[in-house]
Amino acid sequence: MKAAAQSELYRLLPSVDEILRFEDVAKRIGADGRSAVTAAARDVLTNLRAEIANGSLDEQRLRFAIDGIGDAIERQLRKELTPSLRPVINAAGVILHTNLGRAPLSRAALEHSREVSVGYSNLEFDLEAGERGKRDIHVNRLFSRLLSSVDREVSTVVVNNNAAAVMLALNSLAEGGEVIVSRGELVEIGGSFRIPDVMSKSQASLCEVGTTNRTRIVDYEKAINERTRLLLRVHRSNFQIVGFTESPSLEELVALGKARGIPVMEDLGSGALFDLREVGIAQEPTIADSLRAGVDIVTYSGDKLLGGPQAGMLSGRKDLVAKIRSNPMFRALRVDKLIYGALEATLLSYVREDYDAIPALRFMRTPLEAIRKRADALARELTKQSSRLAVTVTEARTAIGGGSAPGATIPTFVLAVTFDGFSAHQLADALRRAETPIIVRVEDERVMLDLRTVFPEQDAQLLAALVNLAQQ
């Protein structure tokens, strides 16, 4: 398009002020605010100018676009003002899916958070004494009860995640000194965060002992010197080392610590209050297991095996926890009333032994036959409603996920779906773009929908999404 013709088109464009006086646009100002509507108008005008510049608009099309500028602004507003954080259906077969928010919260956790957040609460107010209190008490009392089998007094404080808990503990207990850890435990967690990096930020020095696959108790003993402040065990929560391996038992490490007067800290990572042996997973220690073995400080997550909100807990010797709590860094890392509300409600479910109230545990505990019945019912209905869908029910395994119980899986049944005219990846993409996005996995050119990680009340949405695609 010639420059002169383009200039004529640019002159047809209304100004932002003119657009804001359009009747349908002016109404949007009352609903969405002048600032948001003005920004949307500018965005629409920018898009129109770009289309003029690349020659895709002539005068007739431009006048048509200007007539519909109110609708374009409405679409832009919805795009900008609609939350990008959305609920999804997890049919991928990973219970603690890090990318999907890890542990779903229980209804009790959500309700209690709402109760203590819509108004005021006694977060840091002692109602009996009528004076300032500490926010720790709301969950410390419950952790003490749940860890009572340890047979010694245990205290717990809460920060915003487990990486923060590790850094706070190292800074509080080993700043300026050395922390001894096996080379086979220098793990990298999600987002490229590595234990040596966390330790460096804590102002403690790393002393590596042993080799990647073999570390003995004598390696720790030889490394102890006047600067040693902690013996650290890092649980391999997101990987396994197999084959020619060796590592000292926790009891050996504790005995060495006691003999040399050095505290032992264990970063459990996931941190289970529920014994996973009940669902066939034997290699994942509980928090109580570590404390019973004599570990002085244990750090662990709230939104993994515990099944609560994102948080990092430090449980252990009362004097060491008090020292950690007195660290000025604790205030920077502490959590708010929403987290305390959700965490308190989650722990109360443990106290009541109502494990199925916690979604992550309920998914693990759901009987295999119950999953098969749901899968069979959905397969029958899908086959009945569309001849384009080929659906079979097949056995599979659900991963625990979230850097928990590496390699551990639970038996499940999945819907294996193929769709005439779509490849498996095309079908997976289409489901991900559904009104409520559905996240699946693809295996052997089939879409796999694992019902162990799908709430039963979401089965109807799965059915509707697949049928809608088949009818397009």
From TrEMBL:
GO terms for cellular component: cytoplasm. It comes from the Bacteria. The keyword Cytoplasm applies. SUPFAM superfamilies: PLP-dependent transferases (SSF53383). Pathway: Aminoacyl-tRNA biosynthesis; selenocysteinyl-tRNA(Sec) biosynthesis; selenocysteinyl-tRNA(Sec) from L-seryl-tRNA(Sec) (bacterial route): step 1/1. The modification N6-(pyridoxal phosphate)lysine is found at K304. Pfam families: Se-cys_synth_N (PF12390), SelA (PF03841). Residues 10-49 form the L-seryl-tRNA selenium transferase N-terminal domain. Its EC number is 2.9.1.1. Keywords: Cytoplasm, Protein biosynthesis, Pyridoxal phosphate, Selenium, Transferase. One of its GO terms (biological process) is selenocysteine incorporation. Its cofactor is pyridoxal 5'-phosphate. It catalyses: L-seryl-tRNA(Sec) + selenophosphate + H(+) = L-selenocysteinyl-tRNA(Sec) + phosphate. It is an enzyme of class 2 (transferase). It is found in: Cytoplasm. GO terms for molecular function: L-seryl-tRNA(Sec) selenium transferase activity. Belongs to the SelA family. Converts seryl-tRNA(Sec) to selenocysteinyl-tRNA(Sec) required for selenoprotein biosynthesis. NCBIfam families: selA. HAMAP family: SelA (MF_00423). This is L-seryl-tRNA(Sec) selenium transferase.
